[in-house]
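Worked Example 4.2. Consider the chain below.
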Amino acid sequence: MKKQVDIDIETAPDILTAEEVAVLMRASRNQIYAMAKDDKIPNVKLGRLVRFPKRRLLEWIESGGCAYLNQRNRSRRLFP
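Applying the procedure from the previous section yields the following structure tokens:
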């Protein structure tokens, strides 16, 4: 059974993991990694690790950056 991650953006650390970002954006961890790979979401690569600066991520979300995620989800919907 997967561990459910619950995150409060106010108390979250300054650098987030893909799992934490996925919870915040209500997306899958794989979608977050795909967006990071395509540089569609603010991220920092530390060797093999990918992390997400909270401040840049929130600015990106507020500026409408989630449109990429919505566009990808629209093409994969099971029901119209």
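Residues 71 and 77 are 10 Å apart (CA to CA). The chain has a mean pLDDT of 82. Compare this with Example 4.1 before moving on.
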